[in-house]
Amino acid sequence: MAREGSLEAPTRHPIDWKNPDFYNEELLNKELERVYDICHGCRRCVSLCHAFPTLFDLVDESETMEVDGVAVADYMKVVDHCYLCDLCYLTKCPYVPPHEWQLDFPHLMLRAKAIDHKKNGTSFRNNLLSNTDAVGKTMSTPVLSQVVNFVNKIPLTRAVLDSTLGIHKSAHLPEYHSKTLTKRLKNHASNNEVKATDSTNGKVALFGTCYGEYNEPHLGEDLVAVFEHNKIPVQFINDAKCCGMPKMESGDLEAVEAAMHHNIPMLAKLVDEGFDLIAPVPSCALMFKQELPLLFPDNADVEKVGKAFFDPFEYLMLRHKAGELNTEFKNSLGKVAYHVACHQRVQNFGMKTRDLLQLIQDTEVTAIERCSGHDGTYAVKKEFHDISMKIAKPVINRVKQAEPDHYGSDCPMAGHQIANGMDDKKPEHPLTLLRQAYGI
Q: Is pLDDT of 8 > 80?
């Protein structure tokens, strides 16, 4: 007899994407039907994203009002709205492994996306949005970056992008900087002495991320300033490529593998040299900590790198636990509305950003645990932008109600998504706020 729910901690099985059966459409549709039927009978995840309301509407509007009444051709309508945030698996679903029903909704959606990519390829727009390294390198060239940033603010230009590429005219588009993070940290050298603790090696290598490299290089600068202020030597990783998350979200697992083969050898070498690894964007840390080990379970270097990766605030709070965090703050922050990024929540280390910011004198932090609806590219796409803003509305309302002096998210894109529904106040990343508090 099947149990209702599971008392054990969720466990993840490797993604068997090299198996030919992984790409068998008939087997996929049988598994989608099985999982959709379980979800239809539960409906616990209805408020997480638009994938579940889409599924439940398909069921409720069918002749049988059951999953067997939904056309197989409509199954992908659900898949299209899943951006692999992983919250359903980690926070809501009672039927994940080790439950006998073995339900892994996000990775089933990934399988469907991979089959669709193999069968139909990727559209020009989606390929453009997921080619973060190539686009970033081109757009950040001198002069061109200024032109792109200027024209992206012109309504006529945005209308053209909307009608031709399907990039929504109201979506936030990131700026590009000719002075990239690599250029800014070119001459960085640390004089701090390495001091290890039971849980940290005391020196870190910074994986700047493609977003941090081209779009918001100040994030890497803020991280370096904060870590060096805490006597933690930082070495910047040159020649890193995108972690592969944007390609994974579009189902292009071969591109993920190519990025893995580029990044992992250099990261594994750094781990062997005693470095811990840090990324300022939660999605990138999650990619190395969870997704790559599940995609490449037999690769010892992937496992090694995954175990060495930390979120910045996770790392700083581990140092604090060992008595190695500088808590001499020069400035208070007042009221802070802090959005907890989905890809940070599912790393299961708790709200360390909130905990650290609350150490600052005269600082009150309101944590908001709800999806912003951005997902890197989902909120940019014409067909999904309005839905993404609907998902973000409860977060935006909470920020407004808090009447904060500052607001932001560990995910910089989520911060801008929230700003899209605000009046004028701009988001500030928690690393930037921490640097302000230290007065450095």
A: no
| Averaged pLDDT, 3-18 | 80
**Cα separations in angstroms, 121 against 41, 116, 246:** 33, 7, 15
Q: For the chain, how far is it from start to end, CA to CA, in angstroms?
A: 61
404 lies in some domain: yes
Nearest to 420, CA basis, from 172, 71, 129: 172
- Residue written as tokens 């500030």? 428
Neighbouring C-beta atoms of residue 296, cutoff 10 Å: 22
Q: Where are the alpha helices (DSSP H) in 215-339?
A: 218-229, 245-249, 253-272, 282-286, 292-295, 300-308, 312-321
For 366, list phi and psi in degrees, rounded to 5. -105, 115
Q: Is 324 exposed, middle or buried (0-12, 13-18, 19+ CB in 10 A)?
A: middle
Average pLDDT, integer, range 241-254 = 94
The sign of the dihedral angle between the CA atoms of 119, 125, 128, 131 is negative
Q: Cβ(338)–Cβ(366) under 8 Å?
A: yes
pLDDT digits (tens, 9 = 90+) for 193-215: 999 999 999 999 999 999 999 99
pLDDT at residue 265, rounded to an integer: 97
- Domain tally, the chain: 4
Q: Is the pLDDT of residue 2 over 60?
A: no
**Enclosing domain of residue 158:** 124-164
Q: Where are the alpha helices (H) located in 105-252, listed in sequence order?
A: 105-120, 124-130, 132-139, 144-151, 155-164, 181-184, 210-214, 218-229, 245-249
The pLDDT of residue 332: 96
Are 155 and 191 part of one and the same domain? no
The string of DSSP letters for 82-119 reads -----HIIIII-TT-TTSTT---HHHHHHHHHHHHHHH
Same domain for 30 and 93? Answer: yes
Helix (H) and strand (E) counts in the chain: 23, 7
